[in-house]
Specification:
The structure holds three protein chains of three kinds.
Chain A (H helix, E strand, L loop, with lengths): L2 H27 L17 H4 L6 H7 L4 H32 L3 H11 L7 H11 L5 H8 L14 H25 L4 H9 L4 H24 L8 H7 L5 H4 L2 H11 L3 H30 L5
Helix pairs in contact in A: 3-14, 4-8, 4-10, 6-11, 8-10, 9-10, 13-14
Chain B lengths: L6 H32 L3 H5 L13 H7 L2 H32 L9 H13 L4 H10 L7 H4 L6 H12 L3 H9 L4 H12 L1 H17 L2 H6 L8 H10 L10 H7 L2 H16 L1 H6 L6 H7 L1
Helix pairs in contact in B: 1-15, 3-15, 4-8, 4-11, 4-13, 8-11, 9-10, 13-15
Chain C lengths: L15 H7 L5 H5 L47 E8 L14 H10 L1 E9 L3 H13 L6 E6 H9 L7 H7 L2 H6 L3 H4 L6 E2 L2 E2 L2 E2 L10 E5 H7 L7 H13 L27 H5 L8 E3 L5 E3 L4 H15 L15 H6 L5 E4 L8 H7 L5 E4 L11 E2 L7 E5 L6 H16 L15 E2 L11 E2 L26 H11 L11 H7 L3 H20 E2 L9 H22 L7 H28 L1
Parallel strand pairs in C: 1-2, 12-16
Antiparallel strand pairs in C: 3-13, 4-5, 6-13, 7-10, 7-11, 8-9, 14-15
Classes of the chains: A mainly alpha, B mainly alpha, C alpha+beta.
C-alpha cells in the first residue's frame, strides 16, 4: 500500500485528531516550561527567566524533611487503600445493581448512590464533623449497642480509617457508573446460552459478566496508578487537626502549610513534578506488563 | 430474561435489595440533613439542633438565596458553562478517541499520539504558566477561560477509546468496503453503538464542569464572575482565620448554617436531574441488535 | 520598645454593676439621661450634586451628613483612572457594581478619581496569595494594592516593585487624619510599612483591643449553681466543674462543656490564651527575657505547667472530648447551641455566637468579666496588635500617590469624625434591613454593621474588617453616641441614632466590652515582639516546627502523649532549626533598637 493509497482512506483520522492536539499543545504542553521552577528558587517577581537556578536543591530539601517518611507513608497508605477499595467496591456495586432486576428500583438506587459525589469536601467536612463528633449520630448509635464513643477524627487509631471510609462512601457510587456502562456492552445472548446449558447465576457472573468488563477494570486500575500519590488533599485538609498529623498528614497538606508561611512555589513545583513522574512511571510499567504478559494493550 | 428460582438465588436477591437500599439511604442522609437545615430557622440550625427534620420551619433561606444577585449570577454562569463546556468536551472526546481506537496499522503514528495525550494528562506546568496563556489569549473573566483550557478531558478520551474498541469490527469493515468514509463510520456506526459510553462521559463532563471551582478562582480576576461552586466555596471557606480580620457581622452572616444549607441545595439539585435523563441510554444489548441486522 | 497606646476611657466607663445590669433587657434607657449636648447640624457641602450626597435630609426621620472640605486641587481635572485590587464579594444594588456604587460616585465628584478593578479576592488566605502572585507574574501590578500579605510584600520590596511614598507623604498627608491618626504608640503603626526609614506603603490599622479576650459567662448559669464570676484560675475550675456537673447545657445530659475551645490554643474565638497568660506565657509569641533578648515562649517551662493543667481539665471532662477537631468559627455552634457557659472571646462576642445562644434559649444572659488570675498572681493574655501583618502598597512609578492620600484623608475625616454623621445613603439599599432581614432604606431598623457601612470605599477607611486610619475610631463613636446622641430628645434623633440607642442588649454589651478591653489592653497584654517578615529559617523549617508544636501540645492535653513529651519537644525544637531561628530573630530585634 502506497502512502497515497493509505492517506486516501486514512486522512479523516488525522483531521479528527487535530483539534484535540491543538488544545492539548496550547493549554497543556506550552505551559510546561513552568516545571523549571522545581529547579529554581522561584519568585513571581523575578519570573521564570530571572529566578536563580538551584539545581536539585528543592528535591533534596523535600526528601530530607524531618517528616518525609511520615508524610510519604501516610500518603501512600491512604491513597492505595482508597484506590483498591474504590475499584473493588465499584465493581461489586455495579454487579449487584446489574443483578437487581427491578428496573425502577435499580434506577432509583443508581441515582441515589452518586449523590455524595456532588457535595464538595468543604460541605461534607462540616457535616462529617457533626456526624462523627463525640455527640454525633454515629457515636450515639454505637452507644445504643454499648460501645463507648470513639474519636473518629481525633484519634490516631481511627483517623486514616475515617478518611478512607468517607472517601469510599463519597466516590464509589460515581465510579460505579463506568462499570455500568461497560456492562451494557455484554451480549445478553451469552447469558441466555449459559443458562440453557445449566450455568447457575454465580457461575454466569464469574464466567460471563466479569470477563466482559475486564478491559474496563484493567484500564481503570492502570490509570488509577497515576494517582498513587494523591491521597485527597481537600478531604484531609477539611477533616484533619494537629493531633492526628502522625497518621493523617500527607505530602499535599504539608506543602500547603509550608506555603502559607512563605509562598514556596518551587517546593510545590518540585513535589508536583515528583508526583507526576512517579505516576507516569507506574502507568508505563503497567502498560508494559499488560502488553507483555496478557498480550493486552490498555492504551 | 432469565429467571433463577432456586432458594439461594432468592436469598441473594433479598440480601441484594436490602443492601442496595441501605447503601442508598446512607448516601441520601446528608442531603436530607442539609435540606432540613435549609428549611429551618437560623438559630436552631446554627446551634446544631436540626437533624433530619426542620425546626422553626421557614422558606426565608431560599428567598434570601434566590434574592441574591451574586448567587443568581454565579448560578447562571455555571449553567452556561455546563452547556457549552460539555458540548465542546464531548465533540473533542469523540473526535479524538475515534482515531486512537484504531490499530497502528490503520492509523499510523497512533502510538505516538496516545503517549502524547497520556503524558499531558500526568504532567502540567503549574498555575502561573497556565494563567499566562489564558491571559495572553484575552480569556480572563470570560466563559472561554472555564471551558477552553480543559476542552480535551484526556481521561475520558482514553475511556471512550476503550469503549470504541468494543464496537464489533464486522460492521465497520463492511461499511469501509462499501466505500464509506471514516466520517460516516463514526457517525452512523460508532456513535449509535456507543450511547451508554457517551452518556457516561457526558455525565462526567457535565459534573466536572458543575463542580469545578479552582479555575474560576484563578481565571476570574473579578469575583463577580465566579461560577457557582467557586462562589459557594468562598462563602464557606471564608470562615478560615485570615491574616486581616474579618468583621464579626460577616462571621455571623456567613456562619448561618440555614442559609448555607439552602445554597448547597440550590447548587446541587440541578445537576442531579442530568443523570436520570441520561439513564435511558444505559440499555443493554444495543450493539447486539445492530450486528444482527 | 515600650510603646504606649494612650486612650482615655474615663468619661466612658460605667461601673461594673452597670454593665451587668445592661446585659439584661431594657437597658439603654438607663443611660440616656446621663450624657452631653446636642450636635450642631451642619450644612450641605457646596459643589457636590444633591443626588450624590450621603444622608437622608428629606426624610422626616432622616439625617444630614456634613462633608469635609474638599481637598486642595480636587476634583482633579481631567479625572484620573486608578487601578486597584480589592477584597470581598459584595451584594450591589441593581445596576451598581464594585466600580460604580454610591461611594465611588461621590468619590469621583469629590476627588476626580475613578477606580478600576484590577482583581479582587474573598477572605481566604490562600486566595489572596494566589491572586497577588498571579498579578506579579503577569507583570500587571495595580496602581494601588489593598492589604498586601507580608510574604508578597517582601517579594515586591526585594525586587524593587514598590513606590517609595516617603516624600509625598511628608508633603500631602493630612496632619490630623493621616499623620496624627497613624502616629499612635511612637509610630508602631509603621512596623511593616516603613523599611529602613522609608515609607513603602500605608499601614492597615484595626481597632484598639479588637481581638483581646474577655471572659464571657452565662450569668443565669452562675445563678443556678449559686456561684459568682471566677477571679482566679482555681475558681474558674470550680465554676466549670459546677456547670458540667449540673448539666447546664441545652444539649442533653452529659454534653455540657466546661469551657469552649478549639484546635488553636491562641485563637480569635474561644481561645485559651488567657489560661497560658495566667502563667505569663503565650504559645508562639516572642517575648523579651531579662537580658533584653527575644525568646520563644512555647519552649519555656511555664508552658509545661499550663499543658499539665489543661491535660487535667480534659481528663476531668471540662473540655469537649473532641475540642481539638474544631476550628474557631465552629465554636459558634457550641455557643449558639448553648453547650458552653464560659469562653475567652473578644468584645465582638455579642455579634457572633451570642445572638444564636439567646435565640435558642431566651433565658440566656451573657455577661463579660475580667480574665481570672493565675496561681502566682499573674493576669495576662495575648495582646492584640492593631497593626496586622499587611500593608497597602503603590506600584513603582505610579504618579498619583498624592491623590490617593488626599482621598484617604477625606474619607477618614468623613467617617471617623462622628460629628459629620455619615450614616450612609438613603435609598441605596446597602445596609438597611427591615425586620424580615431584607434590605430596606428607611422605615426598617438599621443593621448595625459598624464596619460594613464603609466597605464600598476604595482605600484604607473602606477595607473590610475594621480598618480605619486610627485605632480609636470605634471608641470615638461610642463616646459620641453616649455623650451626645443619647442626650437628644427623642423627636430629634434620626433613624440611625434611634437604631443604636434603642439597640438590643447585645449591641450595648459590645460597647461595654470594647471599652473594658481597651482599659485592660496595655496592662494585661503580652506582646509578640517579633513583628516583621519570616526569617529565612522560618521559611524553610517553620511549617515543620509549627506543626510539631501544635501536634505535641494537643496530644499532651488529650493524653495521647505523656506530659514529659514536652521536654523532648523542646530538644527537637532547638535542634530542628529553633536555635537558628532564635539567632535570626534576635539579629533583627537588636537591629531594631
Amino acid at each position: 500500500m502506497t502512502l497515497q493509497q493509505y492517506l486516501r482512506r486514512a486522512w479523516p483520522l488525522y483531521v479528527m485528531i487535530v483539534p484535540g492536539i491543538v488544545f492539548v499543545l496550547l493549554f497543556r504542553y506550552y505551559p510546561m516550561y513552568g516545571v523549571v521552577i522545581a529547579f529554581q528558587d522561584f519568585s513571581p517577581a523575578k519570573g521564570f527567566l530571572n529566578s536563580p537556578w538551584i539545581g536539585w536543591a528543592n528535591f533534596e530539601f523535600f526528601f530530607s524533611l524531618p517528616y518525609f517518611g511520615r508524610i510519604f507513608g501516610n500518603t501512600l497508605i491512604i491513597s492505595v487503600s482508597k484506590i483498591v477499595l474504590d475499584q473493588v467496591g465499584a465493581i461489586i456495586l455495579a454487579l449487584l445493581l446489574n443483578e437487581a432486576r427491578h428496573l425502577f428500583f435499580r434506577r432509583s438506587i443508581q441515582t441515589l448512590i452518586y449523590l455524595p459525589h456532588f457535595l464538595s469536601w468543604i460541605v461534607l467536612g462540616g457535616i462529617l464533623l457533626d456526624i462523627l463528633s463525640v455527640r454525633g449520630i454515629l457515636n450515639q448509635g454505637l452507644g445504643l449497642i454499648g460501645i463507648e464513643s470513639q474519636l473518629f477524627l481525633g484519634s490516631n487509631d481511627w483517623f486514616r480509617g475515617t478518611v478512607i471510609a468517607s472517601g469510599f462512601w463519597k466516590n464509589v457510587g460515581f465510579s460505579t457508573i463506568v462499570y455500568l456502562a461497560a456492562l451494557t456492552a455484554i451480549n445478553p445472548v451469552l447469558h441466555e446460552a449459559a443458562a440453557i446449558d445449566g450455568a447457575g447465576r454465580f457461575r454466569r457472573i464469574w464466567h460471563i459478566t466479569l470477563p466482559g468488563i475486564r478491559p474496563t477494570i484493567v484500564l481503570l486500575a492502570a490509570l488509577s496508578l497515576g494517582d498513587v500519590l494523591q491521597a485527597g488533599f481537600e478531604q484531609i485538609l477539611t477533616l484533619y487537626n494537629p493531633a492526628v498529623y502522625r497518621t493523617g498528614d500527607i505530602i499535599d497538606t504539608y506543602v500547603y502549610r509550608t506555603g502559607l508561611i512563605s509562598a514556596q512555589y518551587s517546593l510545590a513545583g518540585a513535589v508536583g513534578l515528583f508526583k507526576s513522574f512517579i505516576g507516569f512511571i507506574l502507568i508505563v510499567i503497567s502498560y508494559w506488563l499488560a502488553d507483555r504478559y496478557a498480550g493486552y494493550r490498555i492504551l | 430474561m432469565i429467571r433463577d428460582k432456586n432458594w439461594f438465588s432468592r436469598l441473594f436477591d433479598s440480601f441484594n435489595y436490602v443492601f442496595l437500599t441501605a447503601f442508598a439511604v446512607l448516601c441520601l442522609l446528608p442531603l436530607i440533613h442539609i435540606f432540613a437545615v435549609s428549611l429551618s430557622g437560623r438559630a436552631p440550625a446554627t446551634g446544631g439542633f436540626v437533624s433530619f427534620w426542620p425546626l422553626d420551619f421557614t422558606l426565608e433561606n431560599y428567598q434570601e438565596v434566590m434574592g441574591s444577585r451574586t448567587f443568581l449570577r454565579s448560578f447562571m454562569i455555571s449553567v452556561a458553562r455546563v452547556l457549552s463546556g460539555t458540548s465542546l468536551n464531548m465533540a473533542l472526546v469523540i473526535l479524538t478517541a475515534y482515531p486512537l481506537s484504531k490499530s497502528p496499522r490503520v492509523f499510523k503514528g497512533r502510538t505516538i499520539f496516545i503517549w502524547f495525550f497520556v503524558f499531558a494528562m500526568l504532567f502540567d506546568g503549574g498555575l502561573i504558566p497556565s494563567f499566562l496563556v489564558v491571559r495572553s489569549l484575552g480569556l480572563l473573566n470570560t466563559l472561554g477561560a472555564l471551558i477552553l483550557p480543559n476542552a480535551v478531558p484526556i481521561f475520558s478520551v482514553i475511556l471512550m477509546m476503550n469503549f470504541f474498541r468494543d464496537v464489533p469490527k464486522e460492521l465497520e469493515e463492511s461499511a469501509l468496503i462499501d466505500g464509506a468514509s471514516h466520517w460516516k463510520v463514526l457517525w452512523y456506526i460508532y456513535i449509535p453503538l456507543s450511547l451508554p459510553a457517551i452518556a457516561t462521559l457526558t455525565l462526567f463532563a457535565a459534573v466536572n464542569h458543575w463542580n469545578a471551582w479552582f479555575d474560576g478562582l484563578i481565571y476570574m480576576t473579578d469575583n463577580a464572575n465566579y461560577p457557582m461552586q467557586t462562589f459557594l466555596r468562598t462563602v464557606i471557606v471564608t470562615l478560615d482565620l485570615t491574616q486581616v480580620g474579618i468583621s464579626p457581622q460577616d462571621l455571623q452572616r456567613l456562619s448561618d448554617r440555614a442559609i448555607r444549607g439552602a445554597q448547597i441545595i440550590v447548587a446541587t439539585v440541578p445537576i442531579l436531574v442530568v443523570y436520570p435523563f441520561l439513564q435511558r441510554y444505559f440499555i443493554s444489548g444495543i450493539k447486539l441488535g445492530a450486528v444482527k441486522e | 520598645m515600650n510603646k504606649k497606646f494612650p486612650y482615655n476611657t474615663s468619661d466612658l466607663k460605667p461601673s461594673r454593676r452597670d454593665f451587668l445590669r445592661l446585659s439584661g433587657a431594657g437597658l439603654a434607657a438607663a443611660m440616656l439621661a446621663r450624657y452631653g449636648m446636642p450636635p450642631a447640624f451642619a450644612q450641605m457641602a457646596g459643589d457636590i450634586p444633591a443626588e450624590l450626597h450621603p444622608g437622608s435630609p428629606n426624610n422626616p426621620r432622616g439625617w444630614t451628613t456634613t462633608l469635609p472640605p474638599i481637598p486642595d486641587g480636587m476634583p482633579v481635572d481631567p479625572p484620573v483612572t486608578i487601578t486597584g485590587s480589592r477584597r470581598g464579594p459584595w451584594e450591589f444594588a441593581e445596576g451598581d457594581d464594585i466600580e460604580n456604587s454610591p461611594f465611588t460616585r461621590l468619590n469621583a465628584a469629590v476627588t476626580g478619581i475613578h477606580w478600576k478593578l484590577a482583581f479582587n479576592w474573598t477572605d481566604n488566605e490562600a486566595e489572596v496569595l494566589q491572586k497577588y502572585n498571579l498579578a506579579i507574574a503577569s507583570n500587571e501590578l495595580p496602581d494601588f494594592m489593598e492589604t498586601v500579605p507580608l510574604q508578597i510584600y517582601s517579594d515586591l520590596l526585594e525586587n524593587d516593585l514598590l513606590e517609595d511614598i516617603t516624600d509625598v507623604w511628608e508633603e500631602v498627608a493630612h496632619p490630623v487624619w493621616l499623620k496624627e491618626a497613624m502616629g499612635f504608640g511612637d509610630g508602631v503603626a509603621w512596623q511593616y510599612a516603613e523599611v529602613n526609614g522609608r515609607k513603602m506603603g500605608i499601614p492597615y490599622i484595626e481597632q484598639a483591643a479588637q481581638n483581646d479576650k474577655l471572659l464571657w459567662i452565662r450569668q443565669d448559669w452562675l445563678d443556678a449553681v449559686g456561684m459568682s464570676a471566677p477571679t482566679t484560675i482555681e475558681e474558674l475550675h470550680a465554676v466549670m466543674t459546677a456547670f458540667v456537673e449540673a448539666d447546664m447545657g441545652q444539649g442533653g445530659a452529659g454534653t455540657t462543656l466546661g469551657i469552649a475551645a478549639n484546635s488553636q490554643l491562641n485563637a480569635w474565638y474561644c481561645s485559651l490564651d488567657p489560661i497560658f497568660g495566667a502563667w505569663g506565657v503565650i504559645p508562639a509569641f516572642w517575648t523579651p527575657d531579662e537580658n533584653g533578648d527575644l525568646r520563644y515562649d512555647s519552649i519555656r517551662p511555664e508552658i509545661k505547667e499550663v499543658l499539665g493543667t489543661l491535660r487535667q481539665w480534659y481528663a476531668e471532662g471540662l473540655l469537649a472530648q473532641d475540642f481539638f477537631t474544631y476550628a474557631p468559627w465552629q465554636n459558634g455552634s457550641h455557643i449558639g447551641g448553648n453547650l458552653a457557659g464560659l469562653m475567652y472571646t473578644p468584645a465582638f462576642a455579642p455579634d457572633f455566637g451570642l445572638p444564636d445562644s439567646v435565640a435558642n434559649d431566651p433565658d440566656a444572659r451573657w455577661v463579660f468579666g475580667d480574665i481570672p488570675v493565675g496561681p502566682t498572681g499573674i493576669k495576662k493574655k495575648a495582646w492584640s496588635n492593631p497593626v496586622p501583618e499587611t500593608v497597602y502598597c503603590f506600584r513603582k512609578g505610579f504618579e498619583h500617590v498624592d491623590l490617593v492620600l488626599k482621598q484617604i484623608a477625606w474619607w477618614a475625616e468623613l467617617l471617623q469624625d462622628p460629628k459629620n454623621r455619615h450614616h450612609g445613603f438613603e435609598g441605596t439599599r446597602y445596609f438597611w434591613r427591615n425586620e424580615d432581614g431584607e434590605l430596606d432604606p428607611m422605615g426598617g431598623t438599621l443593621d448595625l454593621n459598624g464596619y460594613d457601612d464603609t466597605k464600598h470605599i476604595w482605600g484604607p477607611p473602606g477595607t473590610n474588617g475594621g480598618s480605619r486610619t486610627s485605632p480609636f475610631y470605634e471608641l470615638d463613636l461610642i463616646k459620641e453616641r453616649r455623650n451626645v446622641w443619647a442626650n437628644l430628645p427623642e423627636n430629634e434623633r434620626d433613624a440611625y441614632m434611634e437604631a443604636f440607642l434603642g439597640g438590643d442588649a447585645l449591641s450595648v454589651l459590645w460597647d461595654e466590652a470594647i471599652i473594658f478591653a481597651v482599659d485592660h489592653w496595655e496592662a494585661d497584654g503580652i506582646k509578640n515582639h517579633f513583628v516583621t517578615v519570616p526569617t529565612r529559617t522560618m521559611e524553610l523549617t517553620g511549617a515543620a516546627l509549627e506543626g510539631l508544636e501544635q501536634e505535641v501540645f494537643l496530644n499532651i492535653i488529650i493524653g495521647q502523649d505523656p506530659l514529659d513529651r514536652f521536654d523532648s519537644f523542646v530538644d527537637e525544637w532547638h535542634s530542628g532549626g529553633g536555635d537558628r531561628i532564635t539567632g535570626e530573630v534576635n539579629e533583627w530585634w537588636h537591629g531594631q533598637m
